[in-house]
Amino acid sequence: MAELKDHDAEHDRLHAAGADHQHAGEHEHEHEHEHEHEHEHEHEHEHEHEHEHEHEHEHEHEHEHPHRAHGHAHGDHDHGPGGHSHPTGVKGFFYGLFVPHTHDAADSIDDAMEASVEGIRALKISLVVLLVTTLLQFVVVLISGSVALLADTIHNFSDALTAVPLWIAFILGRRAATRRYTFGYGRAEDLAGLFIVVVVLASAIVAGWQSIDRLFHPQPLHNVGWVLAAGVIGFLGNEAVAAYRIRVGKKIGSAALVADGVHARTDGFTSLAVVVGGIGVLLGFPLADPIVGILISVAILILLIGTVRSIGRRLLDAIEPDLVDRAEKALREVEGVVDVNHLQLRWVGHRLQGAAEIVVPDDAWAGAESVVHEAEHHLERAMPNLDHMAIRVATVTGATL
Q1: Does residue 71 surpass a pLDDT of 50?
Q2: How many CA atoms within 13 Å lie on the side-chain side of 178?
Q3: Of 161 and 56, which is predicted with more confidence?
Q4: pLDDT band at 374, cuts 50/70/90?
Q5: Are strands 27-34 and 39-47 parallel, antiparallel or unpaired?
Q6: pLDDT score for 383
Q7: Who contacts 49 (Cβ-Cβ below 8 Å, separation ≥6)?
Q8: Choice between 201 and 40, residue whose per-residue pLDDT is larger
Q9: Which terminus of the chain is more exposed, N or C, with fewer CB under 10 A?
Q10: Average pLDDT of 137-165?
Q11: Is the distance from CB of 337 to CB of 331 less than 8 angstroms?
């Protein structure tokens, strides 16, 4: 930094003395100075014969944030004018169940490795819970001979295995970036989320098909009491897993883990359909089971749209507007910053990366380095899930604080 300041001071001295700047008509002088480490500076000067001139400096500073514990609290945030709203009433209730808010995300876990570890832990625990649930249901299938419960048991077992690709994705996401994958492997998490969506879709279609078949080809149920008990077990096991996955997914900012939680929740309601159908059979209405199954399959398909939209937006580098507002607000609060331009953010798995240009007055150029560091600290406090932010400084003559 000292070398840069000496270089600029020498340039100003030569310019004031008129050395090497005597040209006819309009004069131009361009020079570039690069540091081998983190700083890149560009200076452009246009000098006319009246000695009127404008200065524009650009300073690019890239810094990777380790985001260990900072000892700060993170409060609630609002969506602001650029945010979004959610349905209310009955529709809002089901929206909250099956399309949970995924960007409340990452306000508690601010270290990439810690977030991945917590995500893997959630997958391990939920996998064990689902396998135990499936085993208990299978025992009841052997006792009751219920084909509907057998289908639900197979369904739950196959769904439990969807934790495996997401588990692999979390492990891949911890690998360092390479020359081929310069952004790392965080996208594997979103691809796993897409796979989960496909599995949920297939499960809904299969459940609907079985329900339609049962509607036209009714079959008697035996040991209905055991079937009801197994349905309750399936619902409780899936709902426990759903709540846990969604909570951890929102905590670490993983849309894929949230999607897997939604998947478990839909499975829970599918198991509950077995209970409702069994009650209908006990009341003398044998078609209750297939009718409820069809309705739940349709509901799953409708509510799955929200999850598909969330995963799709991640894959297209969409970002929640309130996160952009939060980052811009943090940068504008830095002393010396008069404007923020070209702010960009993107999700890579459950972590954020981005770039921005901050504008400072021309006479504040000498302190640009400290302004950049202060901007980084503001971003760390406002967005602890931010892994990397490239900040460029631009100065224009006439800008005022």
Answers
A1: no
A2: 7
A3: 161
A4: very high
A5: antiparallel
A6: 87
A7: 25, 26, 27
A8: 201
A9: N
A10: 78
A11: yes
- Report the chain's mean pLDDT, rounded to a whole number: 72
pLDDT value of position 114: 60
> Parallel, antiparallel, or unpaired for β 53-64 and 339-348?
unpaired
In the predicted model, is pLDDT for residue 370 greater than 60?
A: yes
Q: Which residue has the higher pLDDT, 290 or 72?
A: 290
Place of tokens 């299938």: 141
- Using the Cα atoms of residue 196, residue 232, residue 301 and residue 91 in order, give the sign of their dihedral: negative
Reading the block at residue 277, the tokens are 């159908």
Angle at 235 between CA 229 and CA 239, to 5 degrees: 150
- Residue 249: strand pairing partners: none
Residue 94 exposure: Cα atoms within 13 Å on the Cβ side: 12
Query: How confident is the model over 169-192, as pLDDT tens digits?
Result: 888 878 888 899 888 888 887 888
Integer angstrom CA distances of residue 400 from 17, 328, 362, 377: 28, 19, 9, 23
Q: How much is the pLDDT for 260?
A: 80
**What was the pLDDT predicted at 236?**
93
CA–CA distance, 133 with 381 (Å, rounded to integer)? 42
Ordered by where they begin, the domains of the chain are 26-68+321-396 (3.30.70.1350), 89-315 (1.20.1510)
